[in-house]
Amino acid sequence: MQRYELFHNNSSLKIIKISTEQQNAEGILFSNDLDISPLVNNFINNYQNITFLCPTEELVEAAFEKVKHFFRYELAAGGIVTDNNDILAIRRYHKWDFPKGHVEDGETDEQAAHREIAEETGIDNTQIIHDLGTTHHIFRSSYFDGYVLKRTHWYWMKNLGSRNVVPQTEENIKEVRWFDKKNINTIKQDTYPSVLTILNQWESIQ
After folding, report:
1. pLDDT reading at 193 higher than 80
2. C-alpha distances in angstroms, 106 versus 89, 109, 112, 128, 147?
3. DSSP secondary structure string for all residues of 36-72
4. What pLDDT sits at residue 2?
5. Is the pTM of this model over 0.90?
6. How many domains in the chain?
7. 78 and 64: one domain?
8. How far apart are CA 96 and CA 196, in angstroms?
9. Can you give the residue range of the structural domain that contains 86?
10. pLDDT at 143
């Protein structure tokens, strides 16, 4: 069972638990004494996909912790907001995305998701319908010399109030748009791999 997938642009680093029968699966068998530095450097600098194969749950977590040490780890939360047959998306950095942002001190993931949606889109009356799980993506920081590994907790949320939207331009959001679910491929064709993962997860529970 795959436990983690970290995206960096269009590349991914997977950490997977394998059974005894899967020992010959394609990937790198992880152990606590494995030097992962050159592998992570290749992933970051050369966009080389990596899969770590872990025989136990404990090694899955150990591998993730070892990878985390190469990055600044940050927590975020956000959501896919729907209103009847429409789904809310934002346009940022020339890609379609969903509203999300940093979890502040003292906030729960749920509270941060509600707040970030309100700040980034103007939709300020939402109700959580379903937990969609988490994604992880890596990007070069704009405020220090290094990379960030961001874990985002996602929720499916229902709009209970006005449909009027206001893009948060200071966060580089150029547009907020309601899409009819029939046109969801417009988002899929121009978004990030991590966002596509959570969108597919949302579709699977419809």
Report:
1. yes
2. 27, 10, 10, 19, 25
3. -HHHHHHHHHH---EEEEESSHHHHHHHHHHHHTTSE
4. 63
5. yes
6. 2
7. no
8. 10
9. 72-204
10. 86
